[in-house]
Design goal:
single chain, 291 residues, alpha+beta, ten-stranded antiparallel β-sheet, 10 strands
């Protein structure tokens, strides 16, 4: 059987050094749409965007943690861990969380420790929880958890795991914003390290069951967090304490995201949909916790 849950969970953690600099941060921010002016009637760059794109003013959006130093957060490397042998075309990113211990510096060197934290049996699919813990010389920085769905690999009699579904937010959203996704957005975003051909190669996308390449879920993840920070947190990236989502559907480059936000005490609930496909859900059960 391609997945040996006991072997995967018992495997030793993989630890290595990662590093990043301001150019990596700027490239990531550009990959999630920073630098664009949401006012379509103005050709000038919004000055507020310079905190994401100009090295002398650079602030690091916390979702950068998903690509810092090594591309996607251990997803591809996690699929080569002991006990795991799967076809990449069957793999889908099901959910993501980032917990921040302190703000991410624009330049850094740190130690990243990767392990498989859980293996769940969803019947028609297996779910791996890949955990990456990152610390530098001053102490812990962040923890990433990636939920990876592997189609056709369930049914091995394992624990089904917890449900990620939340009760829908009450009332009308506090804010609704729209964010266009460029046709070349996936090609730009993948330069931050997620080289999965699903996001670039039309033939591979067809084999995986999609009509054409899809946007990285983690790109949508970053676009959404930036919208929340810019809209409800005064542009202050240091206020974010954690950010969790469930990937509920795909985004195709060229589409427009509708991002609904509900402000609660110490958190923002978010729902994201693709406008051109009758508001098809994209991100669900999404929560940004903040100070």
């Amino acid at each position: 059987m391609p997945i040996d849950a006991a072997k995967a969970l018992a495997a030793e953690s993989r630890t290595g050094e990662i590093s990043w600099n301001s150019k990596d941060v700027q490239l990531y921010h550009l990959g999630i749409g920073a630098g664009a002016n949401p006012d379509k009637d103005s050709p000038a760059t919004d000055p507020d965007e310079l905190r994401y794109t100009l090295e002398s003013r650079l602030h690091v959006l916390p979702s950068f943690a998903t690509v810092a130093g090594s591309g996607s957060p251990g997803v591809i490397s996690g699929l080569s861990m002991p006990g795991i042998e799967v076809d990449l075309a069957r793999v889908l990113h099901g959910g993501q969380s980032v917990v921040l211990q302190r703000p991410i510096p624009a330049t850094g060197t740190a130690t990243a420790t990767h392990r498989i934290a859980a293996v769940y049996d969803k019947g028609k699919a297996a779910v791996l929880v890949l955990r990456t813990e990152v610390a530098d010389a001053e102490g812990p920085l962040w923890t990433n958890d990636s939920q990876i769905f592997i189609r056709g690999e369930g049914g091995f009699g394992g624990d089904r795991g917890p449900s990620a579904r939340l009760e829908p937010p009450a009332g009308e959203p506090a804010r609704i914003v729209e964010r266009p996704i460029r046709e070349d957005q996936a090609l730009l975003y993948r330069l931050s390290g997620d080289w999965n051909p699903l996001h670039a190669d039309p033939e591979f996308a067809k084999v995986a069951g999609f009509e054409r390449p899809i946007l990285h879920g983690l790109c949508t993840y970053g676009v959404t967090l930036k919208a929340v920070v810019d809209t409800l947190l005064g542009g202050d990236v240091t206020r974010v304490r954690s950010y969790v989502t469930r990937f509920a559907g795909v985004v195709y480059p060229g589409e427009t995201l509708r991002i609904r936000m509900w402000a609660e005490e110490g958190s923002v609930r978010v729902a994201v949909s693709a406008i051109e496909r009758d508001d098809a859900p994209v991100l669900a059960d999404t929560v940004v916790e903040h100070t």
